[in-house]
Amino acid sequence: MTPKRSLPETTAYVRITYQSWHQGRLVGEVRASEYAWQFQWQFPKGQLSIEPSLGRALIREPLGRFLERFDYQLEPGGDYSFTIRAKI
Is residue 2 part of a domain? Predict the structure, then answer.
């Protein structure tokens, strides 16, 4: 029997700092490993902007999936997390 190799994982931590249903916008911060970014999610348009650019490609897709799935459940001041199936 061959031992299973587990996939690498990184936990990303999200904090929502601003929310406006009228504008269709969530603003927040996300941290994963040594990286930290600020993001703005305009959910009616599905637009996600992330700053700074350093490491942005690592977080764009998993953060986008997380926001698409949970955007209506996220609240300002809330702390959330999700798992990325990669080592960041």
Answer: no
Within-domain flag for 37: yes
Whole-number pLDDT of residue 71 = 83
Residue 51 in any domain: the answer is yes
Residue 27: name the closest of 69, 59, 74 by CA: 74
* Helical (H) or strand (E) element with 64: helix 56-70
Tokens of 37: 């970014």
Order of strands across the sheet that contains 47-51 = 47-51, 35-42, 25-32, 10-20, 79-84
Q: What is the pLDDT of residue 37?
A: 98
If one counts the domains in the chain, the total is 1
pLDDT, tens digit, 9 for 90 and up, residues 13-39: 999 999 999 999 999 999 999 999 999
